[in-house]
Every structure is written in C-alpha cells, then in structure tokens.
Amino acid sequence: MERQDAEWPRACRTAVVVPVLKDWWLPSAEYHQQLHSDGYGQLLKRGFQLSWEPSAGPCYVCEQTKGKCSYNHRGEFVGCLCSDGSVRTSDCRHRSSKKKDITYMVSAISALYPKRYTYSEVKTLTESFAHKLGKGGFGTVYRGSLPNGRLVAVKLPNNSKDDGQEFMNELASLMRTSHVNVVTLLGYCLQGPKRALIYEYMPNGSLNRFAFGRNSEGEKSLSWEKLFGIAVGIAHGLEYLHRWCGTNIVHFDIKPHNILLDQDLCPKISDFGLAKLCMAKESIISINGTRGTIGYIAPEVFSPQFGQISSKSDVYSYGMTVLEMVGARENISKNSETSSKYFPQWIYENMEEYCLNAGGISADNEIVRKLIIVGLWCIQLQPNNRPSMTRVVEMLECREGDLHIPPQSLLC
C-alpha cells in the first residue's frame, strides 16, 4: 500500500503483513477448485485487495496528535496514548468511566512496547538477584517476578569489551519481533553501565536439557513426537526472522542452549546478542570477525572460500541442532570405534540402522528419518545447496517418503 496525497504526511511506504482466516475466502466453486489444487500459499502469493481510509474514525485524530491508538478485546477504539504520556479516551477527554477498557489499553501497549526499568527496580524484581537460573558467556540469568506476580527471567549481560554491542543487538532485535517461537522481551534496563533484559519465564529451561537420551536431571527423554514438534517450531521461528519481521534478522548462534521451552514445550528462539539486522531484500551479509559457537558455525562464517554469509548460515546451525536432537552426536561419541569420525558422515553411513534402533516403532522411525534428512540438507557445504527456512518448513510438513537424502557434501 502506498498513499501519495500531499495532505497526508504519514504516507504508508512499507509492506504490512496481516493474517487471513480461511473463512474469508470467497465461496465460489472456481475459488474452491483453485484452493484444492494450489493450496493457501499460492493464493496468498497472488494477493488480495485491502482498503484503508486513514481519515475515518477517532484513530485519525489520535495519530494527528502523534499519539498511539489502542483497542479493546472487541476491536473497539478505546483511547489514545498521547505523546505527553497522558491517556485520552474515545470521547477525547483525559478522564474516562471505562476503567476496564483503559486497563486493557495500557496492558496492550505494555505488551507491544517493552517497559524501561531502573536498576533499582530490577533489583526489586529479582529480590536482589537471589535466584540464579544459569550463567554463560552471555551473562547471568536470574528469576524474578513482576508486581502482578508474573514470573520473568532477568539477564544481566557480562561487562565485555564490545561496549554493550551485544546488549544493543539483542534489544534492537527483540523490539522488532513478535512470534510464538521467539522469546518475548518484556522490559529492559539501560542505566549507564548497568544493563538488564527482562524476558518471559521459560519453566522448562533450554532444549539442551532434552537434546539427548536423558535430560540433565535424569528424567525420561522427550518422545519423538515432542522432539519433532520442537524442530518444527524452531523452523517457523527462523522463517519468521529471515522473512516476515520487516527488518530481517540473522541470528548467528542457533544451538540447543539458545532454544528455550515454555510450560507446553513450545520452543522459543533466544539470545540475540550476535544477531545481525539487515534490509528485507538484502541477501549477502557483511560481518566483522567470526560469530557463533564451534560445532554450529556455518563454514562460510569462518572462511569465505565456502561461500557468502547470508541467512543460510542460520540454516546450517539449525541442521546441526536437529541432528543433535536425534542424538547422532551423542551416539557416535559413546562408540570408541567411530568417535574419531565427523558425526554427519557417520549418519550417512549408518542411517537405516540408526533410524531403526532409535525410532523403534514405524511411526517414530519415520520421524527420525525425516529429521535426519532435513538436517543433512541444512548442513550442505555450499550455502546455495541448503534450503531456505521456508523450504525446511515444507520438508518437515511433507511425507517422509517424498524426501530424498542429499549428496554427501559435508565439512570434513
């Protein structure tokens, strides 16, 4: 959409992605025939018409005063958050009798725009950093709770030599994202050298706990069906980052440690400290120095002889993560006779036997085989031979029998 009227200074010059429900399709016989043959994806690619009238309704007045419109759960305009911080309701007064709607509006705005906290408030949320959840090269994570009782994870980045670059990378990345498979940033602290990031709390920790046969607490491993669902969720999250979030984001550090699991084991991509933001049409990325984790870094990231750096570098890391999820690395490391081999090569040589032993029943065998084939495609040596994350999602959703093993072109 693009509006050229001279009297409208805030012309829309960017693409807007909106969900389209299947109930909205025209009920004509011809349309249903197209839907059956082409699927929703092709119909969406053909496009559909949207109408937009910016001068209609109270939101126009709100935007003219540089405010932010808000709506209640019924889709009704309930007020305007003004540039001076005050709140005007639908009748343009500062005071309103619709207390419930104003509460909803403030809550909705808070969800869209992460709150800025002082360092003193961060200490209060974490009870002076009393409950440590984990520590790594990125910093230390503590459990905390908001005034409404909601649990949160508070990350205090390390004081590194990058002068806060990783912190700003993560803040800039997550303030641009909103997806079920990307961790939600609820707030942040930026007070001189004191910095903190406040996320939604993930009760099941990271995927690293479940990547192999048993998690770190000795509990039973996840079922193959659950692991497959996690792999699909990560793929959807990466597809969103690479394609659908406006300013495209390449993560550069996909690995089990950076995939968090909520109470329903829904995966959330986290830790955007090494992420790179790029224009929507930018395919080749320039970075300073190698970034990522050994074992998951794409070959082109540490040596240009393998190709150019792009979103396909995340695809490689995703493939290594998937192969680790099926236990390939763990299996080969326990076998003294084959431990010197590169584990994807071992998978090529022992795939049928491994799928049978790991899967057991036929349904699980099919899942294991599909994950391995997708993983092997993702770690192809040349970036151009790897699928996009959109294609990865399609591969995961198709029948296992429709997939074929890629040529053996791997990093030795």
Automatic annotation (TrEMBL):
ATP binds at K155. InterPro entries: Kinase-like_dom_sf, LRK10/LRL21-25-like, Prot_kinase_dom, Protein_kinase_ATP_BS, Ser-Thr/Tyr_kinase_cat_dom, Ser/Thr_kinase_AS, WAK_assoc_C. Belongs to the protein kinase superfamily. It comes from Panicum virgatum (Blackwell switchgrass). The keyword Transcription regulation does not apply. It holds the Pfam family WAK_assoc. Keywords: ATP-binding, Glycoprotein, Kinase, Membrane, Nucleotide-binding, Serine/threonine-protein kinase, Signal, Transferase, Transmembrane, Transmembrane helix. GO terms for molecular function: ATP binding; protein serine/threonine kinase activity. This is Protein kinase domain-containing protein. It comes from the Eukaryota.
